[in-house]
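pasting for the record
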Amino acid sequence: MPTVEFQGHSFQVDEDGFIDDFNNWNENWVEYVKSTEGIKDLTDEHWKVINVLQDYYKKNGIAPMVRILSKVTGYKLKYIYELFPSGPGKGACKMAGLPKPTGCV
């Protein structure tokens, strides 16, 4: 499994760059993903999406479908793409420490 080094921290990642284990997630991981996604500053809106994704994952063991993410956050899909340019599945889930989604996130 590949390793990512960022600001003195090491993270094991899968072949798609998602962190190996949700339990290894921390704010250093968020900073790493932010830098790779081209996001300058994280806003409260970013954190709201991250927290919703994490809460849903903790309860259900999977990432929520986009429809659910949009409903719970109150953000339209277009806005989520503005927050996370690579999308809710790749950018947001990766930043939240979730495994790569297999369905329609």
